[in-house]
Amino acid sequence: MQSYPLTRMRRLRTNDAMRRLVSEHTLNPADFILPLFVTNGVGVREPIAAMPDVDRLSPDLIVEMCGECVTYGIPAVALFPRETRENKTERGEHAFNDQGLVQQTVRLIKDNYPDLLVITDVALDPYTSHGQDGLINDRGDVLNDETVDVLCKQALSHARAGADIVAPSDMMDGRIGSIRQTLEDAGFHHTAILAYSAKFASHFYNPFRDAVDSNAMLGKADKKTYQLDPANNEQAIQEVALDIAEGADMVMVKPGMMYLDMVARIREAFAVPTFVYQVSGEYAMLKAAAKENMLDEKTCVLETLLSFKRAGAHAILTYYALQAAKWLND
Ligand code: PBG
Predict the structure, then answer these.
(1) Model confidence over 4-25: pLDDT tens digits?
(2) Tens digits of per-residue pLDDT, 189-236?
(3) In the chain, where are the structural domains located?
(4) Cα 208 to ligand 1 centroid, rounded to whole Å
(5) How far is the CA of 202 from the centre of ligand 1 (A)?
(6) What class has domain 26-329?
(7) Beta strand 45-47 with 55-57: parallel, antiparallel or unpaired?
(8) CA atoms of 123 and 308, how far apart (whole Å)
(9) Is 245 in a helix, a strand, or coil?
(10) Which residues make Cβ contacts (< 8 Å) with residue 97, sequence separation at least 6?
(11) Spatial distance between the Cα atoms of 257 and 308, rounded to a whole number of angstroms
């Protein structure tokens, strides 16, 4: 490269048109996925303490939100149920109930907005009385292969309801291959799998656990025997390689902002769609700072979302999805 004054980096930053002309990344509503919390009832809207402006919604209101997503060009929503305490059982059987809250909501969304993609979460934590993503033995250990059997039933039930993408977020070994085989055997060749491959054992999930009412069930237990240690990155690469080999169509990194190194490495190492999840705790931090007028919400949030694109993400799950799409539309 020639040096100063032949090269003046500031020439390309002189005005907005020039900056737009040379920009390497842009944000588009098509990059966003809106996570939605579903609760029972009709016309029900329940606030979530650590997630200002995000509510749990009954299926009818979920469908209204889906209408807004379609209007603003968001291609997909991801559903997370808040099950009643009666439906939280030792073995999480309600996870694969064809008449369950998620299954009903999927059908309702697809009836109203057939072109909006519906992503469902495959994991048992909203359904277990102990709050773990899988089955446990009497010592409280999370059992791998027994859990995978249940996850297959859950994924199949979601596919039957019409889910376009099933997203295992449980981190059991071998679940992607088993779920793929189950879907193939049942003829669901086009139901895609978004694997939460690089999912770290993060404390930034706390607001989410309140939203689905799994925190209280979990008590003092944690998920460190299956979710990745935040100290590791080689293991995250191995997880992604395994999930792709087992048939994952897309992989995910989670949390987002403090794991951009993983997004960049995974995107570079594997030629597959790489998604990132800006999780509940990241949302809570941004909201809290904005509410205290410490940060300008719009500019800071859009900057975080752009950083995901720069790192290489193809799509972003964020509780700001609809808001960001509206901001981009302004
Ligand atoms: C559970 C699941 C979690 C999230 C998505 N699916 C929490 C956890 O693993 O405890 C977190 C999402 C968020 O924090 O926004 N299978």
Answers:
(1) 999 999 999 999 999 999 999 9
(2) 999 999 999 999 999 999 999 999 999 999 999 999 999 999 999 999
(3) 26-329
(4) 6
(5) 9
(6) alpha beta
(7) antiparallel
(8) 25
(9) helix
(10) 103, 157
(11) 8
